[in-house]
């Protein structure tokens, strides 16, 4: 998949089933997701393995309910998505959700930048017993 386009990479990232997620990411990734001590899966990541672990930790700790993409723009090696998500934290049974924006950069067929902006207040509240 070394010649994958940003659009193909975006599709692979959003489809959490059946992928070897570490293959989606460059060896070192510019990962941005605001740390939140109340949310166990939100933490600093840098390597392909660390970034791929996000896609194992998230479904283990949440029940995803909905994700919708309102806008997907691709220009060169960059893709930006705007949408909405919702789910439930398994440990508390509390719902979370809200809008998100995701910026990806694909270099040599792998994600080199992953910047996610989401409703962290809603997620933290859902993680708090």
Automatic annotation (TrEMBL):
Domain SnoaL-like: 22-114
A GO term, aspect molecular function: isomerase activity
InterPro entries: NTF2-like_dom_sf, SnoaL-like
Keywords: Isomerase
Protein name from the UniProt record: Ketosteroid isomerase
